[in-house]
């Protein structure tokens, strides 16, 4: 089934329903919904043109450039979601996202899907994008919760440090809670996948006429990749935050 621009226009009319609800209940979201809809059309149309060009050429440096830009945008987005940012947060976020997403994406390409070459754009770009989007949310939740704890529990942390605890030991409870919070959206999705919702990759393949069995297998692989990426990114971000908040003499600092 091929969608025409007229079909897309009809679908866009559905946004009017959300806008009318906002106006009726005075939610103040009408302008935001309109801007979001326009951005959705503009951004996806632009990326569609770029991907069509990259797919036709299939050169590694162009694919790597797109992956790098995607990661940078995700890092900025994750940083902007933190209510108490510190100097170096962008670097820490970028490092966590890069290590997690690129390592898991390469494992998927080389060992699971066995795609040659690894930079085949129609595989690596959507796979890394899925991992990146979920890791972004995970890092935002983990980092935000851990930073809040370090600010709010200064006295308790300093007391533990005075009792010869290491920075990791003094923050162990907070690190566990922060990583758990970051992982929870992914875990919740895995708990109800196939029962409450049919994820995007599986739905897209089925609508495109693919074998449902293969669509399910691809979705299972995708969910496991997302889970691993979220776990790695949450852990790295938490450890990097702790490193920023303690000096070489294991004293608690609150960086600006």
Automatic annotation (TrEMBL):
<feature type="transmembrane region" description="Helical">
    <location>
        <begin position="190"/>
        <end position="208"/>
    </location>
</feature>
<keyword id="KW-1133">Transmembrane helix</keyword>
<feature type="transmembrane region" description="Helical">
    <location>
        <begin position="60"/>
        <end position="77"/>
    </location>
</feature>
<dbReference type="Pfam" id="PF03649">
    <property type="entry name" value="UPF0014"/>
</dbReference>
<feature type="transmembrane region" description="Helical">
    <location>
        <begin position="89"/>
        <end position="111"/>
    </location>
</feature>
<feature type="transmembrane region" description="Helical">
    <location>
        <begin position="32"/>
        <end position="54"/>
    </location>
</feature>
<dbReference type="InterPro" id="IPR005226">
    <property type="entry name" value="UPF0014_fam"/>
</dbReference>
<protein>
    <submittedName>
        <fullName>Putative ABC transport system permease protein</fullName>
    </submittedName>
</protein>
<keyword id="KW-0472">Membrane</keyword>
<feature type="transmembrane region" description="Helical">
    <location>
        <begin position="220"/>
        <end position="242"/>
    </location>
</feature>
<feature type="transmembrane region" description="Helical">
    <location>
        <begin position="123"/>
        <end position="141"/>
    </location>
</feature>
<keyword id="KW-0812">Transmembrane</keyword>
<feature type="transmembrane region" description="Helical">
    <location>
        <begin position="6"/>
        <end position="25"/>
    </location>
</feature>
<comment type="similarity">
    <text>Belongs to the UPF0014 family.</text>
</comment>
<dbReference type="GO" id="GO:0005886">
    <property type="term" value="C:plasma membrane"/>
</dbReference>
């Amino acid at each position: 089934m091929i969608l025409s621009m007229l079909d897309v226009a009809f679908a866009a009319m559905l946004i009017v329903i959300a806008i009318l609800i906002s106006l009726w209940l005075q939610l103040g979201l009408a302008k935001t919904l309109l801007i979001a809809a326009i951005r959705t059309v503009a951004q996806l149309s632009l990326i569609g043109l770029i991907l069509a060009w990259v797919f036709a050429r299939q050169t590694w440096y162009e694919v790597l450039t797109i992956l790098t830009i995607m990661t940078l945008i995700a890092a900025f987005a994750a940083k902007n979601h933190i209510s108490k940012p510190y100097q170096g947060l962008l670097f820490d976020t970028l490092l966590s996202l890069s290590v997690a997403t690129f390592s898991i994406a390469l494992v998927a390409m080389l060992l699971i899907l066995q795609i040659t070459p690894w930079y085949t754009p129609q595989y690596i770009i959507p796979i890394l994008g899925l991992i990146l989007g979920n890791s972004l949310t995970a890092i935002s939740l983990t980092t935000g919760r851990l930073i809040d704890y370090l600010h709010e529990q200064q006295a308790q942390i300093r007391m533990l440090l005075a009792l010869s605890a290491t920075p990791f030991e003094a923050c162990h409870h907070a690190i566990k809670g922060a990583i758990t919070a970051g992982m929870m959206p992914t875990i919740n999705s895995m708990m109800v996948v196939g029962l409450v919702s049919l994820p995007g990759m599986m739905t897209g393949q089925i609508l495109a006429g693919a074998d449902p069995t293969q669509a399910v297998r691809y979705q299972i692989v995708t969910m496991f990749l997302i889970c691993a990426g979220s776990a790695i990114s949450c852990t790295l971000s938490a450890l990097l935050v702790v490193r920023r908040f303690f000096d070489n003499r294991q004293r608690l600092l609150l960086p600006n």
